Every structure is written in C-alpha cells, then in structure tokens.
C-alpha cells in the first residue's frame, strides 16, 4: 500500500523537517486504495531518497509536497519542492553515480551522489522509471509510476459500507 508506505517515510523524516521549520504536505484521496506490486523495502528507499532530497536541498521553511494519484491502471507519485531547482546542464547527469551539482558539493549537507542512481536502478527493476522537471529558482518535481493492483475484496468492502 503506497499510501501507508509514504506515511511511514514522512513520519521518519518529520523530525528532520520540523527542525528546519519545513512542511511536508501529503495530498491523497482518503477513501482510495493504492495497492501495487513490488519490493516494499526497495520502494521505501526510493520514496525516502526523493523526499529527503527535496528537504535537503530546500531552504529552511521550504515546502515539500507529496502527491499520490491514480490513473487507469497506474499509481503516480510526485515529490515537489520549492527549493533551488537544478540547472538544465546538470539535469541529465543527476542520475549518474556520484554526480552532484556543483552548488550542492559546496554546501554543508553531506551526500555521496548515489541516491538518485539507486532510485533509477530500483525503478528499472520494477519496469518503471523516474522523471524530473525542474526550474532554477523555483523548484523540482520528481515522479514515478507503479501498476495499480485492483483489490476485489477492498471494492466489496467499500460496496458493503455504502449500501
Ligand atoms: P546521497 O543521496 O547519496 O546522500 P546526494 O543527495 O548528493 O547524495 P543524489 O540524491 O543522487 O545524491 O542527488 C544528486 C544531486 O542532484 C544532488 O547532489 C543535488 O545536487 C541534486 N538534487 C537532487 N535532488 C534535488 C532537489 N530536490 N533539488 C535540488 N537539487 C537536487
Ligand atoms: Mg540524495
């Protein structure tokens, strides 16, 4: 359940966020289910890397938004920040191992430059891919999709509850 998984990730990072006066906003439809197939631990790692990056490179007081939505047969996860953004010339390289944008290298925040390479690798293993759109001075959006698994028992429960 991607909703439950994301809630866990946000709970884990909440302490770090509040220390920097940041908000993580979660946008999700409450009565929907977001079941997918995959390696839970690995998908957890993907979400943790993306949300942690969105916080790490943002200024204090910044906002991170996590949006979960379904399309026909897929669930989409968007992680949006209103941080510094990534210059176009760096954008195509951030998924390479050890690549860090020059500015981040000079900042005090540590990092090895492996996070996004791992994200890409894990999603490839799930027949998915990571996409990014970024504007310098405005922020970034990282997105990926996984298959939506229909749960008959859940739909039945829902029907029973609304009858
Ligand atoms: P690690 O994740 O291994 O601790 P890292 O965060 O530097 O280190 P990646 O997560 O792979 O490595 O990110 C690569 C680079 O992309 C970062 O160094 C940073 O320059 C840039 N980057 C990633 N996410 C963002 C973001 N949300 N906003 C701005 N820059 C980002
Ligand atoms: Mg990282």
UniProtKB/TrEMBL annotation:
Signal peptide: none annotated. Residues 1-150 form the Histidine kinase domain. This is histidine kinase. It comes from Algoriphagus winogradskyi.
